[in-house]
Design a protein that fits this description.
Layout: H1 2-18, H2 26-35, H3 42-53, H4 60-83, E1 87-88, E2 91-92, H5 94-97, H6 100-120, H7 124-147, H8 155-180, H9 185-209, H10 215-218, H11 224-227, H12 233-240, H13 245-256, H14 264-274, H15 277-295, H16 303-317
Antiparallel strand pairs: 1-2
Helix pairs in contact: 1-3, 1-4, 2-6, 3-4, 3-8, 3-16, 4-6, 4-7, 4-8, 7-8, 8-9, 9-15, 12-14, 12-15, 15-16
Length: about 325
């Protein structure tokens, strides 16, 4: 992974260079606050590792990895405005420190920068993959907004939503690594499948941890999703297994009406435990993790393949 570590340093330098603005100093101020907040750079690492695994020895994968990180950062800025969040990665959100307008406009700037970067690779297929992913991400966010506080949301709609808001960028990050390396199509599709399954597992794990994870590991407070009335997989499974009308009325009050009082989060977790909702969601996350590992079988054993398998282990290890 030494090559990937060197590549990541190049990505960080490129991000610092491209997030600058000669005429609007607030842009680098807002961007730096989020970019330097301790994120793991997971998505760009996936692009770098996928490209190297597929045999790439050029430099355009660095631009694509920076593109992926800019898209991700832009969506975080927008998400925090939509969710009215106060904390991200253990720090106050940009919209709290500055304002909603700054967060939205800087997010737009980063999207524009991402498109500038992706065109520099001069690969139309890469451009199509990343442009499509950007549209799917936006679609997923709108779907989340449409299903917010709606207990009638089915598991299929939930999975479609998290595919859009999370897995689509994971998939694009790994797929473009294979494309820029001119890998055989079977390998490109394997990398896309790996990214998709990894992204699905990642989001389900996040949703599970909101009902019992350490806030320091999440960069947010435990129970944020609950307080916002988000309909996540643990909630859907708990509602489906609600033992009586009192439990169903509870979920309707706290999620649909967002009428919450002290002790409601603890009671929600009790209901989830009784319904095996968290265990059920964990099982689904582990199944997606297994799909991600299986997708890499088309590649011979190597340190890079082991590293990508290690990312899968890192995602599911957060459940332990």
């Amino acid at each position: 992974m030494g090559l990937v570590a060197d590549d990541l340093e190049a990505v960080n330098r490129l991000i610092a260079e491209r997030m600058a603005s000669e005429h609007a100093p607030r842009i680098p101020e807002v961007t730096r606050h989020l970019v330097e907040a301790g994120g793991k750079r997971l998505r760009p690492i996936l692009t770098l590792a996928a490209a190297r695994l597929a045999g790439y020895d050029g430099h355009d994968h660095v631009k694509l990895a920076a593109t992926v990180e800019f898209i991700h950062t832009a969506t975080l800025l927008h998400d925090d405005v939509v969710d009215e969040s106060a904390q991200r990665r253990g720090r106050p959100t940009a919209n709290l420190l500055w304002d909603n307008k700054s967060s939205v406009l800087v997010g737009d700037y980063l999207f524009a920068r991402s498109f500038q970067l992706m065109t520099e690779a001069e690969n139309l297929r890469v451009l199509a993959i990343l442009a499509n992913a950007s549209a799917v991400i936006a679609e997923g966010e709108v779907l989340q907004l449409a299903t917010a506080n709606d207990l009638g949301t089915g598991e299929a709609a939930y999975l479609q939503m998290i595919h859009g808001k999370t897995a689509a960028l994971f998939a694009a990050a790994t797929e473009v690594g294979g494309v820029i390396a001119a890998a055989p199509e079977a390998q490109v599709q394997a990398l896309k499948s790996y990214g998709t399954a990894l992204g699905m597992a990642f989001q389900i794990v996040d949703d599970v941890l909101d009902y019992g994870g350490a806030s320091a590991s999440l960069g947010k407070n435990t129970g944020d999703d609950f307080r916002e009335g988000k309909v996540t997989l643990p909630v859907l499974l708990a509602v489906e297994a609600a033992p009586d009308e009192a439990a169903r009325a509870f979920w309707k009050r706290v999620i649909e009406k967002r009428d919450q009082t002290e002790g409601d989060l603890a009671h929600a977790m009790e209901l989830m435990t009784a319904a095996n909702a968290l265990t059920g969601a964990e099982t689904r996350a582990r199944a997606y993790a297994a799909q991600a590992r299986e997708a890499l079988a088309v590649f011979p054993d190597s340190d890079l393949r082991a590293a990508l398998e290690g990312v899968v282990e890192f995602v599911v290890a957060r459940l332990n």
